[in-house]
Amino acid sequence: MTKKRIGIYLLITFGLVWGVIISYLLGGGSYDSSEMQFILMFSMLCPTIGVLITRKITKEGFAVTGKDSLMLGITFKDKKWVWFLLALVGPIIYFDLGELLYYAIFPQAFDPAALDSLGIPGKLLFLIPLSGISSSVVVSFAALGEEIGWRTYLYPKLEELYGTTKAVIFGGIIWGVWHFPAICAGHNFGHGYFGEPWSGFAVFTVFTMGVGTILYYLTRKTGSVWAAAFMHAANNVFSSFTVLGLTYSDKNLSGAALQSPLRLLILSVPVLIISVFAWRKMVK
Fold this sequence. Notes:
The chain is mainly α and 284 residues long. The chain has helices spanning 2-26, 34-43, 46-57, 81-105, 112-116, 127-162, 164-178, 180-185, 198-222, 225-238, 260-267, 269-283. The two termini are 27 Å apart. 39% of the residues are buried.
């Protein structure tokens, strides 16, 4: 029954997203269009749609909290508030560490003038992460559409069948592959990079395996999907909105430094390191 539920869930979730995006692209649609942006927003709801339909078909029920539930409850007792706080500020830390690594490899990409052009006085730079955190809380309602599907449904069922290690590996791969049509359209990496779209597929799947492990760890620690939704939203915001991220400029870059998949791979190094610690904690 667990395998059946996974199959139905994936069929619905992939069918909706792949079907809509591929049909739109084959019909001559472009990534920069307002229609495509609407499709991407709709896509974030599809994992939850898949869960609800699967639960209905297989008579699994719609428990809000507890075992095998949607995990929509939220509590700050027993110091769980610490994990919710980490969910919001963690992406600031690991993306800025990634930026430092990127600038160490490609110092010509660092351009303080890019930050100055925003017109923000130096003494007010602290508002950038605060603004990002506020945005993450708001955007978390959209991220919830994905997290109910991946972290409260697919990952636990994969873990039930195959154990924790295979669950985070298989889950991360599936989550990455789900994004492939959007990447083909230009999402995350744009166009014109070396090995398009295969290098984009590979790098993004490595990223989803890493960050998916962290998101699942947060879900298990808090017993709530909201922690993962907060971090998912913060990932989307802070991947390009940290102080160091805003000092990035490609005007002096050439060759490998201009390859967007390589940039994400370097930025992902701290994420992958943290994911290993999260995996070890879950396995223990």
